[in-house]
Design a protein that fits this description.
- The protein is α/β, with parallel strands linked by helices.
- The chain has one domain: TIM Barrel (Alpha-Beta Barrel).
- 35% of the residues lie in helices and 28% in strands.
- The protein has an eight-stranded parallel barrel, surrounded by six helices.
- Strand 2 and strand 3 form a beta hairpin.
- Helix 1 packs parallel to helix 2.
- The longest helix has 11 residues.
- It starts with a strand and ends in a 7-residue tail after the last helix.
Length: 251
């Protein structure tokens, strides 16, 4: 049985790690390179770096940061934010990133998923989907959650899989930063409509929430930020507790 992955997420703005609630009210959480190094040392399975202002500022993720992270960590890491071309992905992977995450650019140009998958292989193409419930329906949002679309979360997830995405990073905007738990019902439905791994994001506040994401939500990985950055849930303790509950993790 495949082990479940614990993935700290570092939202980057102006070269610093930041964290907010429902995508707003950001506060500083430290130096991303130092944090990355610490996470690799204490047992994180992977890391995700999201340059959260890149799309809004109409620029690409900084290669310099990717190079520095690659020098410091020995676990896979994914980079996202403002990625919109084959050339940019090539540069990020050459700089040391293991995977790239695309979001707004995938919605605006769905063929980009096909192009990236064909050129680099689907194992390094993650499609991030930010969604929130509007009138009871999960709708996809773009540009750091600032632009609503008419796209249905589950229809879009099926399409990105068909186009060659290797993984989906689903963030519930309703749950993000609330520490009230992951959107397990949406995760369960996602796991039923696609066959590629799903990373759960948004809402982690306790060890039980991770357990729910893996058991009820059928997620393959669980991503969190503030509970890790501010020391509320130590990763070694989290993994030990998950193992006690019979959830396969890498210790």
């Amino acid at each position: 049985m495949l082990t479940k992955r614990i993935v700290p997420c570092l939202d980057i703005k102006n070269g610093r790690t930041v964290k907010g609630v429902n995508f707003v009210n950001l506060r500083d959480a430290g130096d991303p390179i130092e944090l990355a190094k610490q996470y690799a040392e204490i047992g994180a399975d992977e890391l995700v770096f999201l340059d959260i202002a890149a799309t809004l500022e109409n620029r690409g993720t900084t290669l310099e940061m990717v190079l520095k992270v690659a020098e410091q960590v020995n676990i896979p890491f994914t980079v996202g934010g403002g990625i919109s071309s084959v050339k940019h992905v090539d540069a990020l992977l050459q700089s040391g990133a293991d995977k790239v995450s695309i979001n707004s650019s995938a919605v605006n140009n769905p063929d980009l998923i096909n192009e990236l998958s064909q050129k680099f292989g689907n194992q390094c193409i993650v499609v991030a989907i930010d969604a929130k419930q509007i009138n009871g329906n999960w709708k996809v949002h773009l540009a750091g959650g600032t632009i609503p679309t008419d796209l249905d979360l589950f229809d879009w997830a099926k399409e990105v899989e068909q186009r060659g995405a290797g993984e989906i990073l689903f963030t519930s905007m309703d749950n993000d930063g609330t520490k009230a738990g992951f959107a397990t019902e949406a995760l369960t439905k996602l796991s039923e409509v696609v066959n590629i791994p799903i990373i759960a994001s948004g809402g982690a506040g306790s060890i039980n929430h991770f357990e729910d994401a893996f058991t009820k939500g059928k997620a393959d990985a669980a991503l969190a930020a503030s509970v890790f950055h501010f020391g509320e849930i130590p990763i070694p303790k989290l993994k030990q507790e998950l193992k006690k509950q019979g959830i396969p993790v890498r210790l």
